[in-house]
Design goal:
460 residues; Fumarase C, Chain A, domain 2; Ribonucleotide Reductase Protein R1, domain 1; two-stranded antiparallel ribbon; Fumarase C, Chain B, domain 1; mainly alpha; elongated
Length: 460
C-alpha cells in the first residue's frame, strides 16, 4: 500500500510510494549514509538548468517527443521555483563522479513529468530517467558543468560583499587619516604611519583578492557539457553541444562556451582549483587582517589599545566586564576552515585518473561550503565589527612620542651611530627622542620641529 516496485540492472526494490526519486537513488541512500549533508541548493538548480536546456534542444532536434520534453521542462521549472527540493536526498559523499546525484535528478524529473502526463510514478516507459531525462548526457559531463555554473552563481554575492568590505576598511582609514601612530615591524616599534595608511592596506589586500577571483571565474565559462562519458560526445546530436550551452547561457546569464578540449574538461578540474585557491589566498589575507585588529585592540590596560572594536557580547563567563574581539576571532575560524577546504579540493583535483576525475562531488561540497560561509559571515563581520571601529587617538600619540625609532629621522643629520645612541637612551629613560636631541644640543629646536612635522614624518 505504501510502496511501489521499480527495477534496475541490479534487480527490484520497494520504493516509498510518494517519493519522486526512484530505485537508483534509494540504492545510493542505502550505500552512503555518511554525513547527512545534501548538495547545496545552488548546485541542484544548476543541474536542473542543464536538464532543462538538454530537453529543449533534444525536442528541437526531434530526438525527444514534444509531450515528453514539455513535461520534463515543466518539471524543471517547478524545481527551479523551489518545489521538490526535499526529494534530492543523496549524501554529498557518494559514488564517484556524482552518478548517484545525477540519477537522483533524473528520477525526480522523470517521475514528476510522468505525473504531469497522468501516468503513475515509476512507470518509466513514457518518461525514462536514463533514456529521456538523461538523453545526450552523462554524469561525467553534467556534474562538472553543474560545478562550474553553480560556482559562478554562488560567487556573485560574495564578490559584491568583498567590494563593500574593502570600501568599509577604506572609510575607517579616511575617518582617522589625521592620526599619526607608531609603525611596527617584527612586532617592534618602527617609523610612523597614519591610521589611514594601515587601513588602506587592508582595503587594498581585499580588493586585489577580489579582482583575482573575478579574473579566475572566467576559467569556469568553458564547460564540459557535450563530452558525455569520455569526451567523445557519444550518443549526442551533432548540434547538441553548442545549442545546449547556448540555452544554458540564456538561462544563467553567464557567457558559457564549450571547452576547447572535452577530454581535458573531463580529466582536469584546474578551473575549480583556481577558485578554491583564490578563496584560500583571500582567507590568508583575512586571517592576517583579523589578527592585526586583535593586536591593535588588545588590552585595554596591558595591550596596544590603539583601536576599540565594537562590544557585541560579554567576553567571559567568569570575568565581569571583559569584552573579547569575538568577530575577528570568528573570522579566523571561518578562514581556517576555507584553507582546509582548499586542501581537500587540491587532493581531489590531483586524483583524476586517465579519462575522468571521479572526485568531483567532494570538490563541489568543499568549494561551495567555502563560498557559503564567507558570504554568510562577511556582512556580519563588516557591520558588527569594521564599521564600528574607533581609534584611541591619545594612546596613539603617547606611543608615538616615546617611540625610539623616531631617531631614524635624525640619521641624515647626525649619523646612524649617534641616532642609535639617542634611541637607546630614549628607550631606557622612557623619554622622547626629540627631548633628548634638544638636551644634547645636537640640533636646534627649529630643525627638530621641521624634522618631526607631519610632512617629513610621513614623506608626504
Amino acid at each position: 500500500m505504501f510502496t511501489r516496485k521499480e527495477n534496475d540492472p541490479l534487480g527490484e526494490k520497494e520504493i516509498p510510494k510518494n517519493a519522486y526519486y526512484g530505485i537508483q537513488t534509494l540504492r545510493a541512500v542505502e550505500n552512503f549514509p555518511i554525513s547527512g549533508l545534501r548538495e547545496p541548493l545552488v548546485f541542484i538548480k544548476a543541474y536542473i538548468y542543464i536538464k532543462k536546456a538538454a530537453a529543449i534542444v533534444n525536442k528541437e532536434a526531434g530526438l525527444l517527443k514534444k509531450e515528453t520534453a514539455d513535461a520534463i521542462i515543466t518539471a524543471c521549472d517547478e524545481v527551479l521555483s523551489g518545489k521538490f527540493i526535499d526529494q534530492f536526498v543523496i549524501d554529498i559523499f557518494q559514488a564517484g563522479a556524482g552518478t548517484s546525484f545525477n540519477m537522483n535528478v533524473n528520477e525526480v524529473l522523470a517521475n514528476r513529468a510522468l505525473e504531469l502526463l497522468g501516468t503513475p510514478r515509476g512507470e518509466y516507459k513514457t518518461v525514462n530517467p536514463n533514456d529521456h531525462v538523461n538523453m545526450c548526457q552523462s554524469t561525467n559531463d553534467t556534474f562538472p558543468t553543474a560545478l562550474h555554473i553553480s560556482t559562478l552563481i554562488a560567487l556573485q554575492p560574495l564578490l559584491l560583499e568583498l567590494d563593500v568590505l574593502s570600501e568599509s576598511f577604506e572609510t575607517v582609514g579616511k575617518k582617522y587619516a589625521h592620526i599619526i601612530k607608531s609603525g611596527r615591524t617584527h612586532l617592534q616599534d618602527a617609523v610612523p604611519v597614519t591610521m589611514n595608511q594601515e587601513f588602506s592596506a587592508y582595503s587594498s589586500a581585499i580588493k586585489n583578492c577580489t579582482n583575482e577571483l573575478r579574473k579566475r571565474q572566467e576559467n569556469l565559462y568553458a564547460v564540459a557539457l557535450g563530452g558525455t562519458a569520455t569526451g567523445t560526445g557519444a550518443n549526442t546530436h551533432p548540434k547538441y553541444k553548442q545549442h545546449t550551452i547556448n540555452e544554458l547561457s540564456k538561462m544563467t546569464g553567464f557567457p558559457l562556451k564549450p571547452a576547447k578540449n572535452n577530454f581535458e574538461a573531463l580529466q582536469s578540474h584546474r578551473a575549480a582549483a583556481t577558485i578554491s585557491s583564490g578563496l584560500k589566498e583571500l582567507s590568508l589575507e583575512l586571517i592576517r587582517i583579523a589578527n592585526d585588529l586583535r593586536l591593535l585592540a588588545s588590552g585595554p590596560t596591558t595591550g596596544l589599545d590603539e583601536i576599540t572594536l565594537p562590544p557585541v557580547q560579554p567576553g567571559s563567563s567568569i570575568m565581569p566586564g571583559k569584552v573579547n574581539p569575538v568577530m575577528a576571532e570568528c573570522l579566523n575560524m571561518v578562514a581556517y576552515q576555507i584553507v582546509g577546504n582548499d586542501t581537500a579540493v587540491s587532493l581531489a583535483v590531483q586524483a583524476g585518473q586517465l579519462d575522468l576525475n571521479v572526485m568531483t562531488p567532494v570538490i563541489v561540497y568543499n568549494l561551495h561550503f567555502a563560498i557559503q560561509i564567507l558570504t554568510n559571515y562577511l556582512p556580519v563581520f563588516r557591520t558588527r565589527c569594521i564599521e564600528g571601529i574607533t581609534v584611541n587617538e591619545q594612546k596613539c600619540t603617547n606611543y608615538l612620542e616615546k617611540n625610539p625609532s623616531m631617531a631614524t629621522l635624525l640619521s641624515p643629520y647626525i649619523g646612524y651611530l649617534e641616532a642609535a645612541k639617542i634611541a637607546k637612551q630614549a628607550q631606557k629613560e622612557n623619554r622622547s627622542v626629540k627631548e633628548i636631541a634638544i638636551e644634547k644640543n645636537l640640533l636646534t629646536f627649529e630643525q627638530l620641529e621641521k624634522i618631526f612635522n607631519r610632512k617629513n614624518l610621513l614623506n608626504e
